[in-house]
Amino acid sequence: MNDTNISGICTVADTISHNWWLLALRGLAAILFGLLTFIWPGISLFALIMLFGAFALINGVLSIFMAVRAPKGYPRFGSLLLGGVCGIFASILTLIWPGLTALGLLIMIAAWAIVTGILEIVAAIKLRKEIKREWLLILAGLCSVVFGVLLMLMPGPGALVLVLWIGAYALVVGLLLIVLAFKVRRLGKEVLTPAPARA
Question: H or E segment at 134?
Fold first, then answer.
């Protein structure tokens, strides 16, 4: 066991493993959002805007909560904090601008996906020495970036196709976040298990 664990000082790995449930909640929120879009394929534009706003708000709040629970002196969590702020900002825009057009919604979701994806990749790269399976967070970030770029490049699909795209994206990212959550939870158990004494 390393000196930081012996002295009782919380490391980044400890914090992430203890807060694995925040990652799991983010993943669950994404999966629920994705499932709703598939179960309700004839969703109106207004309902889709409100649904996205709720999802972005929940995702943003959970990201900020995880960032502020990080150990003092680790600025690397700033990317999670910034991503959370972007999510809350996007949700506020949908609430104060309910008359958003389909194109406007598409641009907003695309921009949100690209920004949050890049920030997740940055967070994963900075944490690669602290946690294992950080590639899951990188993959989730890449999915977000690719999804956002595709929306920007192909704004022409009909409403139904757009809803299905959004739903598929949310499901994939949600599953990746939940898998990562349980991986870091296992990491926490390994950290707390004392290493066998050497003869």
Answer: helix 134-153
Residue span of the structural domain in which 56 resides: 11-189
pLDDT in tens, 91-137: 888 777 766 666 777 788 888 889 888 988 887 787 776 666 667 77
**Buried-state track 94-109, b at ≥16 Cβ within 10 A, e below 16:** beeeeebeeeebbbbb
Rounded to 5 degrees, φ, ψ at 18 are: -75, -25
pTM of the model: 0.69
* Number of domains within the chain: 1
CATH of the domain at 141: 1.25.40
The sign of the CA dihedral 75, 142, 62, 159 is: positive
Kindly state whether residue 196 falls inside one of the protein's structural domains. no
Sign (positive/negative) of CA torsion 6, 9, 13, 15? positive
Question: Which residues does 86 contact at the CB level (< 8 Å), separation at least 6?
Answer: 60, 112, 115, 116, 119
With respect to residue 61, please indicate whether it lies within any of the assigned structural domains: yes
In a domain, residue 198? The reply is: no
